Amino acid sequence: MAILELKGISKHFGNLAALDGVDLVVEEGQLTGLSGPNGSGKTTLFNVVSGFYEPTAGEVIFQGKNVTKMRPDERAAMGLVRTFQSNVLFGQASVLDNVVWASSLESKTNSWAAFLNTRKHREEEKAIVKKAREILEFWGFSGVEDVLASELSHGDQRRLGLAVASATNPKLLLIDEPVGGIGGEERDSVVAHIKLLQQQGITIILVEHHVKTILAICERFVVLDFGRKIADGKPLEVAAQANVIEAYLGTREVGK
Amino acid sequence: MNTTWTYSRIKTIALPILGLAGAIIIAYAGSDRILTYLIPAYIWGIVVFGWTAIFRVGQFSLGQGAFMMIGAYASAILTTSVAETTQITSAIFQLPTLVGMLLAGVIAGIFALIVGAATLRLGGIFFCIVTLAFNELIRVVAVGIPEWFGGVNGILAPFPAPFGIDFQHSKKPFYFLTLIVLVFAAIVFWRLDRSRLGRHFRAVAANKNLAEHTGLRLSKYRIIAFTVAGFFAGVAGALFGHYLHVVTPTLFGLPEAIIVLIMCTVGGTSTPIVGPLVGALILSPAGDYLTSKFQGGKPLVFGILVVLVAFFLVNGVTSLPNSFINLFRRRSRRPAEART
Lengths: 256, 340
Fold this sequence. Notes:
Number of strands of chain A: 10
Low-confidence stretches of chain B: 332-340
Low-confidence stretches of chain A: 252-256
Number of domains of chain A: 2
Number of strands of chain B: 2
Strand order of the largest sheet of chain A: 6-7-8-3-9-10
Radius of gyration of chain B: 21 Å
CATH architecture of the largest domain in chain A: 3-Layer(aba) Sandwich
Structural class of chain A: alpha/beta
Shape of chain B: globular
Largest interface: A-B, 54 and 29 residues
Number of helices of chain B: 14
CATH topology of the largest domain in chain A: Rossmann fold
Structural class of chain B: mainly alpha
Mean pLDDT of chain A: 88
Largest sheet of chain A: 6 strands, mixed
Strand content of chain A: 15-25%
Order of helices and strands of chain A: EEEHEEHEHHHHEHEHEEHHH
Oligomer: heterodimer
Largest sheet of chain B: 2 strands, antiparallel
Strand order of the largest sheet of chain B: 1-2
């Protein structure tokens, strides 16, 4: 079943067409890599899907429902969650508090119960903290729950951002350049965890510059260039396509 | 347990008890003259809690004076029993004063809800400008409809007389009334801050894009903070009106809205209760004293004070003990590595 359908998405900024009639159908459980040169429209596409921008034309269908006019938080409540390159919410709060915040978005008790601190709410809070600790354990943060988020290394902040996003029980996760600016062991760890998230049943779209990462974990590779989809298919095949190589290496300019 | 834990426990348990005990002792040991300084200070305390709550959701309100004004007029109209021939709103409700004050808060809260719902989606500077304009709007309406609001002369607000207690000849009953409201407001804002709501408030302030994309409805939490703050500003305005016995269009306005933010800045906004309360307790009596000594002294001294605080004490007066403790205690920083 298709979890996300984009129908003819266009986004214009004045005369500039950042996206020009993009169609995309993402099946449930898929891990899709989305790439393209700088300015190709990757992030704009993310912004349209998550609700940060309203598209100039086209429709965003999530789980069979047209969400084009919905606010980001309404989409997130349905399970469509995006991350930002810097996804640390509270730099001045502990690692645990960051994840507890995200987990508490799912809480069932209303604001009055929270304000009056009813027994039901206290029990729920306990469950939320327990769940947050489990998530932190999964992401390898055991033992550093009380460290301030801003004191974490760059790579660890990236992982914390993913932990925060995954704490909201997303169905579709849009991950924006999770390994940009980090390398080596840290990158491998982040990539491995994204694969694990997919195995938990979360559909993932990954914006990534680093083609190797996409080849390593994605089942599908979509390439954008000048706001148009220029390739879509199995990662290895897409990476070998002439127009993709051209877009990346810029032979067009060289050949002219 | 480490020292940080003990220190924070001392703060949350001992400080309120000591403060309350001090407030009660002053009422009996001190003179009425001291109480004339403390009653306004407590009333401002009620207002600054609200302003800080709004500030901690990442918004900047210049409209708290308007909500105080709404509360003051509402309570005066609802409770007065003096029939004025020129004023159609006089002596038609004749409610008990305490009920009037409560309703004044509710009315101010409803206004805050409407203004908030209409403008808080804008956020930032636009919200700030709208609240500023709202301040002026209320004043213009108060002056412009003398049949309702008594024009520039204002309207009388009766002394409270609940359960036969005499509020007119002694300051003590009024002092305790404001103290009770202050404590109630402190508990409400403290609960707001400590509950899940406070967590969401901080999320909106810390990173609104991320919070929204993770699933938080920003406007809901901004409106909650603004409405609760509006309610308490209304109650505070009503208290002030009954305390002064008269409500005039110049009672609250932009200068008062700015004084509220000066109190919060000087006290410090990193805490929801202690910082703003300390600011109000210092600046309200200081302002009253300065005004009694020479006209114009209050804005002059307050202006200089804000500049000094902005330069040397960004987190306000209440950050002083912590910075002092940190001087003597070497902070044990844990290693930043979080890898497994």
